Prior knowledge:
Layout: H1 6-36, H2 51-56, H3 59-89, H4 96-106, H5 113-123, H6 135-160, H7 163-171, H8 176-205, H9 210-213, H10 221-230, H11 234-258
Amino acid sequence: MLFHSKFARRLAWGTFFLLSAVFFGLPLLMLLLAALAGQWNGVLPSQLGFGNLLDALQDARGHALFASLATAASATLCAVVLGTWGALASRRLNGAAQRVIDAVYITPITLPTVTVGLALLVAFSRPPLLLNGSPALVIIAHVTLITAYAYSGIRAGLARLPEAYEQVAASLGASPARILFGVTLPLLRPYIAAAASLGFALSMGELGATIMLYPPGWVTAPVDVYALTNRGSIFSGAALSVLLLAATVIALLVLNRLGRHPRRS
């Protein structure tokens, strides 16, 4: 422990909770109040109710939430597959080959997201790969931006994976495919779930590249929140933000549960 006295530990914990409440808890509380508010003319809102939240589930806003969920689920699945593939492929490499693979996966997240969006817009706005104006281009942008996190997380998991399990399976005559699907991937399940959770959360909140690429029929929730607040519809934007947050938390809880190793009886 950095703090040996009981008073110092209490002071450290108290400071932590105070800062968390001010910089994290208070903004979330204000967001929730704005989502429930009918009016806000004083210090606190009035006419609280669920009207804004119900409206956010209907028509275009409801479709925006669905678009975010569909985009995040598709992008996360692709990113986990690509990240796992890259991590497994680079497992036995070192030197220049390892650095090249790292650069391929990591470079997109070193760039501004609007730059990534513009690059994809230019690249896929001409035949033979004409994807401009389709949801597929939005999903590709999200995959590009989150695959690095999947690759890094799963690669870290592989580094901690004891090779003895795979060696024993191989000595018993298991094929490489059986070792992969029966030993390696099950042992990596917590890391894969963690990578999927991080990728899903990042995709659900992605705005910079998405706002460059989204077609009129595939407006994601962050883009819709930006548009609503830009027009002065703060309560509607807050309501959609709360629903976006709730959907993300539920999805992360599910992924966390799927990432647990089964208990042995």
